[in-house]
């Protein structure tokens, strides 16, 4: 799959999103549609993005009982997106059912979307995880544990910080995807993220994809910000 930085289209509606995308003219981008935009605009916006030739990560982070996730994935499989996700905390069975739903729901002429699992959100710190989730371990231990569960369930990869990417490769295999949000250029505001890295460090540490939102979308010149991220990511 194309390795361009994935731009998080965290906008309130399609007017904002289209205004943003228009700046890139005909460039085919890899974009992420999250809950905010999908809840507002639904599948018609996904179809529009597809008609423009963009690659799409539909980030709805499913986390429910196995049967509900199975039937929801069956529906999402028909949208023709390239990547979808679940929360690994939903458990092995839920992840297996998610994959089954996608496999059954993908039309014959389409490729099944990649299925990845969020391990520990990049906004979560070790202190918060221990205090709020009552996990009395290092944060990396929890991330690696979830990655192993996702791997065993047959998923294509995980969402993780680049700080854990190397250990995940060792615990799974080289082709298991490590998709990394929490990307910031040096000096950027980290906002609500905890485990942040630069595009160049993400590459060096072994991430396969990076997800970048506010550092691009809220930049004074988003095109320039995107080019800087892409340059750093591709050069390393
Ligand atoms: O699944 C995700 O995309 C995701 C997982 C995670 O652990 N952390 C995380 O930040 N994300 C998403 O990645 C994007 C990061 O946005 P910025 O912090 O603005 O770069 C947001 O759209 C988040 O919803």
Automatic annotation (TrEMBL):
Ligand binding (substrate): 10, 32, 59-68, 122, 184, 193, 213-214
Coiled coil: none
Active site: residue positions: 61 (proton donor)
Subunit annotation: Homodimer.
HAMAP family: OMPdecase_type1_B (MF_01200_B)
PANTHER family for the chain: OROTIDINE 5'-PHOSPHATE DECARBOXYLASE (PTHR32119:SF2)
Name the UniProt record assigns to this protein: Orotidine 5'-phosphate decarboxylase
Record organism: Lederbergia wuyishanensis
């Amino acid at each position: 799959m194309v390795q361009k930085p994935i731009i998080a289209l965290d906008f309130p509606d399609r007017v904002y999103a289209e205004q943003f995308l228009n700046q890139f003219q005909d460039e085919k981008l890899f974009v992420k549609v999250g809950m905010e935009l999908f809840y507002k605009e639904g599948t018609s916006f996904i179809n529009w993005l597809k008609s423009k030739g963009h690659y799409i990560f539909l980030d709805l982070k499913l986390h429910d009982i196995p049967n509900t996730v199975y039937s929801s994935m069956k529906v999402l499989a028909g949208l023709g997106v390239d990547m979808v996700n679940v929360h690994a905390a939903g458990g092995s069975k839920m992840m297996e059912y998610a994959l089954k739903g996608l496999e059954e729901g993908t039309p014959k002429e389409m490729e099944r979307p990649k299925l990845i699992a969020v391990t520990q959100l990049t906004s979560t710190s070790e202190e918060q995880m221990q205090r709020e989730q009552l996990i009395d371990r290092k944060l990396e231990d929890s991330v690696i544990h979830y990655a192993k569960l996702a791997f065993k369930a047959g998923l294509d990869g995980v969402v993780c910080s680049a700080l854990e990417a190397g250990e995940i490769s060792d615990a799974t295999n080289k082709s298991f995807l490590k998709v990394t949000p929490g990307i910031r250029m040096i000096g950027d505001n980290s906002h609500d993220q905890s485990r942040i890295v630069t595009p160049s460090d993400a590459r060096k540490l072994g991430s396969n994809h990076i997800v970048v939102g506010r550092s691009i979308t809220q930049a004074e010149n988003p095109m320039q910000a995107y080019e800087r991220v892409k340059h750093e990511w591709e050069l390393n």
